[in-house]
Amino acid sequence: MESYVLDWANLLLRWVHVITAIAWIGSSFYFVFLDSSLTPPEDEDLKKQGVSGELWAVHGGGFYHPVKFAVSPPQLPKHLHWFFWESYSTWISGFALFTVSYLYSASTYLIDKSRMDWAPATAIVVALAFFVVFWLLYDAVCRIFGQRKNGDAIVGALVFVLVCVASWLACHWFAGRAAFLLVGAMIATAMSANVFFWIIPGQRTVISQIKAGQPVDPIHGQRGKQRSVHNTYFTLPVIFAMLSNHYSFTWSHPHNWLVLILMMFAGAAIRQFFVMRHGYKLGRNGNPLPYALAGVAVIVGAVVWMRPAPVPPLAAGAVGAGASGSNSAGSAAPPDYKSVQAVLEQRCYLCHGAQVQMKNLRVDSADSAKQHAQAIYQQVVVTKLMPMNNATGITDAERALISRWFEAGAPVP
After folding, report:
1. 267 touches 295 (CB < 8 A)
2. Residue 60: CB partners within 8 Å, gap ≥ 6?
3. DSSP character for 319?
4. Which residues pair with 69 in a beta bridge?
5. Facing residues of 39 across strands?
6. What is the per-residue pLDDT across 65-81, written as a single tens digit (0 to 9) for each?
7. Does residue 41 sit in helix, strand or coil?
8. Which of 8, 41, 108, 372 could be disulfide-bonded to 46 (CB atoms 3.0-4.6 Å)?
């Protein structure tokens, strides 16, 4: 029942998280596009009102004419729409999902004892520390260097270093899948913190100054714009980190920390292309295509670098049967079920046997092993997701044994 309830919680939280993330990313992308596409107003009345840019657009059967006031409008409207609940809802639902999926079962999903054998409580504290420490360091970098000459470039370089260090630490301390998700959640936390601590407070200060009849300090808008731009570059790296948990060849790679860094870098470079292409159309900057090509080149390079090495037909079997004690893995003949059963008993029965049936799956009999042979092969051999974080220490030879058994038709007595 506990597994059933957790599955429902995971599904519903994931659903909410994706919906709110779409709303947040959609509005963020739109306003970055809008800022990059604004042109000086042509109407004299708009100029007198203090409009710094305008855009004409057609969508959904109508025409739209958004305008931007550089510092403040002549007067505040009665109804002013704020953009912050999309961010807060995304973070709250994401953190709840992370708690249910990883923190609640830290010993299973967060900890890989071959990397760091620590108590669940310790692993949870360290994982949460990633959120706090990264935000504090990132925020300090923005405060110290953000307003200096070439501040954006300095901040970008230092933040890249922070992300690289965090990725290396996470992938050496936690299970691969959890490490990727942790780094993504860490960056996403900084994105939401930008909204909570800088963007919204700055907007509230501006509105208070307008209502009080005071001169509006443009620094609040500048800081908010800076953090908003940072958020848009964070977006594609975060999305990759979140999606990667479905693709074990990324986080199970021996150099998974480098895989994560390369793919996040590629995402940021591609996002740079989309940010600059609007200005390029208006003649404000050069052709940003090299950024997209650089991002694609990094992805192609990663694909080539990570390709699996060809395995001779009998090479996997030559290493022996591992814990099963059978010599059948070293033979070209299909292994008998007793050899496979010995591996399943030692590596799989703990979670899929008589006492516990995780995901309602049981493989402790010949009939059930035969029935679920496809799932066993997929999870143990193809994706190598099971055993979870290899908690039971299955060997490559044992995976090869199961592979040959399945390919022979999964024979049982």
Report:
1. yes
2. none
3. G
4. 51
5. 54
6. 999 987 788 888 889 99
7. coil
8. 41
Q: What are residue 111's phi and psi, to 5 degrees?
A: -100, 130
- Contact at 8 Å (CB) between 163 and 180? no
Q: 230 and 198 in contact (C-beta within 8 Å)?
A: no
**310 preceded by a cis bond (ω within 30 of 0):** no
Alpha carbon distance 383, 308 (integer Å): 13
**CA gap 4, 226 in Å, rounded:** 44
C-alpha to C-alpha distance for 187 and 130, rounded to whole angstroms = 9
Q: Which two tokens stand for residue 266?
A: 């590629």
Q: Is the pLDDT of residue 316 over 70?
A: no
Q: Alpha-carbon distance 154 to 149, whole Å?
A: 9
The count of other CB atoms within 10 Å of the CB of residue 115 is 15
Rounded CA gap, 209 and 215, in Å? 7
Contacts of 45 (CB under 8 A, 6+ apart): none
Q: At CB < 8 A and 24+ separation, what contacts does 367-371 make? A: 367/412, 369/337, 369/340, 369/341, 369/344, 369/410, 369/412, 370/410, 370/412
For 214, other C-beta atoms within 10 Å of its C-beta total: 9
Separation of alpha carbons 119 and 115, rounded Å: 13
Residue 37 CB coordination number (10 Å): 18
Residue 218: CB atoms within 10 A of its CB come to 12
Contact status, residue 121 vs residue 172, Cβ threshold 8 Å: no
β-sheet bridge partners, residue 58: 63
Query: What one-letter code names the amino acid at 170?
Result: A
pLDDT in tens, 191-237: 999 999 999 999 999 999 988 888 889 899 889 999 999 999 999 99
User: In terms of DSSP H, where are the helices of 311-382?
Assistant: 337-347, 349-352, 366-371, 373-377
Contact 202, 224 (CB under 8 A): yes
**Would you state the structure tokens that stand for residue 212, as one six-digit string?**
């009080």
Residue 363 and residue 384: Cα distance in Å, rounded?
17
Query: What whole-number distance in Å separates Cα of residue 375 and Cα of residue 361?
Result: 10
